[in-house]
Amino acid sequence: MDKAALDVIAIGNAIVDVIAAVDEDFLAARGAPKGGMTLIDAGQANEVYAAMGPARESSGGSAANTAAGVASLGGRAAFVGKVADDELGDDFDTDFNEIGVHYTTSRLKNGALTGRCMIFVSDDGERTMNTYLGACQQLTEHDIVEDEIASAAITYMEGFLWDPQEAKKAFVLAAHYAHKQERATAFTLSDPFCVGRYRAEFLDLMRSKTIDYVFANVHELKSLYETDDLGEAVRQIAKDTELAAITMGADGAMVVHNGEVTSVPAFPIDHVVDATGAGDLFAAGFLLGMARGQTLETSLKTGCLAASEVI
Prior knowledge:
Blueprint: E1 6-11, E2 15-21, H1 24-29, E3 37-39, H2 42-51, E4 56-60, H3 62-72, E5 77-80, H4 87-98, E6 102-103, E7 115-121, E8 127-132, H5 146-150, E9 152-158, H6 165-180, E10 184-188, H7 192-207, E11 213-217, H8 218-224, H9 230-240, E12 243-247, E13 253-257, E14 260-264, H10 278-291, H11 296-310
Helix pairs in contact: 3-10, 7-8, 8-9, 10-11
């Protein structure tokens, strides 16, 4: 296999994050499951946005954050995701090109607005999300460029992308193009509720070898195998995929590769500010390590370090 021009190409929902600190009453009033992600419509998005109070905005989305993380670590990254031909779409395009992420996906015209994710940050740093996907849901096979996929050592996709039917086709096509060039494919389970909706399909992606590397936190992994026993979940995923990278919060992270488990501790954090994006940046560090031929242990440490900096 020849040397890849890109370390990672990430495919996912192109979203502008709107982040605000909230108290427990705010979450309770909206019935938002703490630590989870709830999809909302345009009307709800406007209501929640108005109720949030002071907030900061930044271009993101799960896989997009990972692409940005790869670039911030000195890697060569690209992103594929759909925004609308509107002001937030302009901001997204500018942000990603300014940080050095290759981003050329065509804009959606005369349709839904650019997606946005309202992120509520609790006092303990936990994040709860209300997401309006908007233009994200219009990603199709036409947005997947074979030459771009072929140029990346690893093609990384997010479980959140698995909602729209056309995006599923784009997901599978990207994996096909990657494997055609003997490149690795990876995806993140994204969220326990996402796993609950698509458990059988996610397992099929793994068992059919459409996906080579799987990223999950402990809650997502347990949800995937419908067990409260982490050891049992680890044993199951070891049989279903070539490699699984599992984040364990303050307990660090592990990777399961060909049935062997490698673990590293978390980097100490004096003060938790906000856990938003920690899993995405763990993936960035780990993927860059893998793309550059680092050992599993070194890749894990790079991922944990990147996550700790975000937190």
